[in-house]
Automatic annotation (TrEMBL):
Membrane topology: Multi-pass membrane protein
Organism superkingdom: Bacteria
Region (Disordered): 1-21
Protein name (Swiss-Prot/TrEMBL): Amino acid permease
Length: 508
């Protein structure tokens, strides 16, 4: 960078305002977007079976255990947001605490995770789109269109384009869409849970188990391997709540509102998960026969198997709920990478074009389009190569989530190290909670990385005798280092100068 442009770059890094639409999101809207990103209908459909297969009737206990590190990390996120309400979240906070190099890699973990899940959500939306059409028309052949690769990819690109268009139009358009889709899927999930409990009470359930206190005991899981596998799955199903923090510059109360929204989102989700998981467990049991959760034939999509027996003629609503869940999450998930890249462009960690704001909608237009294009290309390539490869890239998502959540939580501990011991509240919220949450998630990251070296991990694919999930995970991090070094060559000033943000006083 020439000396003539250096002052401008420094000014960009010290300015907090990026031009986003201020005050456009309240507490309710933020929580709705958070729930949408987590995508409960889609997530539960694919996660309940494998989790129950790993831990049996202790499914509710494992979901609660997975909730703990999320809550601990959310406490740390809330404190960081109060000090630095910046849409860059992980990028901004980790850069401030540990320096620009670590901050850049932390944000790369976030970007990798969101791009991975965007492609997966689009693929799931395609599957349920054609399944719903088949159910509505009574023509089963329509459901098979999803296996036609050109049709699948073309439909997927259309879904991503629509989601990007809504995100491009800013938060007002996003909120309208999210209210409708989120409310619909929550109503259907609660309907499903109530109907399942009704079958149990009426003696018409497949297995008909009574809820027992021992289901909530995580120490009842037979082996540590099963416990670790269950926790890894449960951590994944909570991922996405941090999107509400990326909306801090657009929130009505930027310093405290997003933190409250994050906690509220997690509490809403854990309550919903408990209701639905207990209903499914009571109705189906964990056996391997027919509708049992141990049946491998139904584990990829539990709701597709159970919706008919539980909801009768209204089963079509569950297909539509999962479709709306994946479509809503596809759109809301785009918020996070777009605003992260916006912040990186704003502070000089990416080219300045990523910091462009649309004058009409006050949204990160260029970054939104970039996220959509990258996710589309990634999905198209992976879908053409192999469905197994695409599946393993989604398994890699868990590694990326644990990595960037863990690093961000520890950034809270380090950033507040001088004031964390002044009061009991500061010790608990700025030191102990984020420290425990960060360590737990980084331990999960290391354990998952080690386990994924086994060729049998994930789809069973391998390269040179090493599991494909491990190769993809390490390859993704190495790619991040390469991109970071390229950006260092283009704009070394960001990496050489002290990272600055506009900070606000933090009140205990």
């Amino acid at each position: 960078m020439s000396t003539g442009t250096a002052p401008l770059a420094h000014e960009r890094r010290t300015r907090h305002d990026k031009g986003l639409s201020k005050g456009s999101v309240g507490l309710l809207g933020s929580v709705v977007i958070g729930v949408s990103t987590i995508a409960p209908a889609y997530t539960l459909s694919g996660a309940l079976g494998p989790t129950a297969a790993a831990v049996g009737t202790h499914l509710p206990a494992i979901l609660l255990v997975g909730f703990v590190p999320m809550l601990l990390v959310a406490v740390g996120y809330r404190q960081l947001n109060r000090a630095m309400p910046d849409s860059g979240t992980t990028f901004t906070w980790v850069s401030k605490a540990f320096g620009p190099w670590v901050g850049w890699m932390g944000s790369w973990g976030l970007l990798a995770a969101t791009i991975l899940v965007l492609s997966n959500l689009a693929g799931i939306a395609v599957d349920f789109f054609y399944l719903a059409l088949a159910q509505i028309t009574g023509n089963d052949a329509i459901a098979e269109l999803t296996r036609n690769v050109p049709v699948n990819v073309a439909t997927c690109l259309a879904f991503v384009a629509v989601a990007a268009w809504i995100s491009y139009r800013g938060m007002e358009a996003t909120k309208v869409v999210q209210y409708v889709l989120v409310v619909f899927q929550l109503v259907v999930l609660l309907w499903f849970a109530a109907a399942a409990f009704g079958h149990v009470a009426g003696g018409t359930a497949f297995d008909g188990l009574a809820v027992r206190a021992e289901w909530f005991n995580p120490f009842g899981v037979e082996t540590f391997s099963a416990f670790a596998a269950g926790v890894s799955l449960s951590v994944f199903i909570y991922w996405g709540w941090d999107v509400v923090l990326t909306l801090n510059e657009e929130s009505k109360d930027s310093t405290t509102g997003p933190g409250r929204s994050a906690i509220a989102t997690i509490l809403v989700i854990v309550a919903l998960y408990m209701a639905v998981s207990l209903a499914v467990l009571s109705y189906s049991g964990v056996g391997s026969a027919e509708l049992g959760l141990g049946n491998e034939d139904i584990q990829e999509n539990v709701f597709a198997a159970l919706a008919g027996p539980v909801m009768g003629p209204f089963a079509i609503l569950m297909s539509l709920a999962v479709l709306s869940s994946s479509a809503a999450s596809l759109q809301s998930t785009m918020i996070s990478p777009a605003r992260t890249m916006l912040a990186m462009g704003h502070y000089g960690a990416l080219p300045a074009k990523y910091a462009r704001i649309t004058s009409r909608f006050q949204s990160p237009g260029y970054a939104t389009i970039a996220a959509a294009v990258i996710a589309s290309v990634f999905y198209a390539v992976m879908r053409v190569v192999s469905e197994n490869v695409l599946w393993d890239t989604i398994t890699t998502l868990g590694m990326m989530v644990c990595f960037y959540y863990g690093v961000t939580a520890l950034a809270c501990v380090w950033y507040f190290r001088r004031e964390a011991f002044r009061t009991t509240k500061a010790f608990l919220t700025k030191f102990l909670a984020p420290l425990l949450g960060g360590i737990l998630l980084l331990v999960f990251f290391v354990q998952t990385s080690y386990d994924s070296m086994d060729p049998e991990y994930g789809s069973g694919s391998s390269i040179g005798g090493v599991g494909l999930v491990f190769v993809l995970g390490v390859g993704m991090l190495l790619l991040g280092i390469v991109v970071m070094l390229v950006q260092y060559r283009r704009n070394p000033s960001f990496f050489r100068e002290r990272f600055e943000t506009t900070e606000l006083p933090v009140l205990d």
